[in-house]
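We both want to read discrete structure tokens more fluently, so let's practise on a single case. Once you have written the record down, we can walk along the chain together.
***
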Amino acid sequence: MSELRKDPIIGRWVVIATERKFRPSEFSSPGEVQKESFCPFCPGNENKTPAEIYARRPVSPAPNSTGWEIRVVPNKFPALRIEGELNKKGVGMFDMMNGIGAHEVIIETPRHRKDNDEIVDVKDYPLATMVNIIETYQIRTVDLKKDPRFRYILVFKNFGKEAGASLSHPHSQLIATPVVPKRVKEELMGAKLYYEFKERCAWCDIINQEIDSDKRIVEQNDAFVAIAPFASRFPFELTIMPFRHSPDFDQITAKERELLADLMLTVLKKMSKSLNNPSYNYMLHTAPCRYQRPGYWQTIEKDYHWHMEIIPRLVKQGGFEWGTGFYINPTPPEEVTEFMKSLAL
């Protein structure tokens, strides 16, 4: 029989539709990536992108030149632009403001393709490359938090056509917004209410519960745990959480960067092996930028817990999902956990 399961933080219900149960081999074909005749992100084409914001070069200090290990540039077609003022105003009953923000592209590696012509992906990275990427996320987040126009900074990656990737060269993105997104606000409010009732962090309680039950822990190390959430919206959805309570991703230590990189590589390799290299998204959910004003997220240091969501793009949403906000997941997270834990890399 199908089950209805409730997310303990934002109160969202999902349907675990066991009658529709899928095996990993029954999901969609591998994530397709566009094969471009020209790639603006490859070494030698630095003049084809906007001027870089940040780069790591072991030898040459010259900006916008070759020899880089990782490079950050403004998105050439940004969703939000950094220049200008917000100019908030009302139009009758409606609110609006200028599209101010920041939209950056993190070009993760100079390697575009492997020797067999396959597209390079995170699962192919050495540990040092993944550590550099996480440190770059941290550096850019800390820098953008200095701008008082920005309320939230989201780091995310789209891999494959089904996940929204428009270029195949390995990259992720960062967008700073002048408002806190609704999805994050739901987490913030749910975390606040949970803390007011129990005086504990909801995510810390989830970690303790999952360790006690040992039903949905896919992987863990000394600093992080990857779980298949109890109320998973999607097949093979994963959440990575730090054991150390902290609302802010950008406060991770050097050792935590290395351990997060190691865990990400492990679970993404297992996901790729399980599902034949699917399209996927990952998103870093961290606390909003905080500025002193009365009544604004006063307990966030105690009640919010940063985390990463990883979502393979295996099923599509239909009218029921769009009309109700429910998700229908054909694969119970307990079975996902059992399958992924059994895989040898």
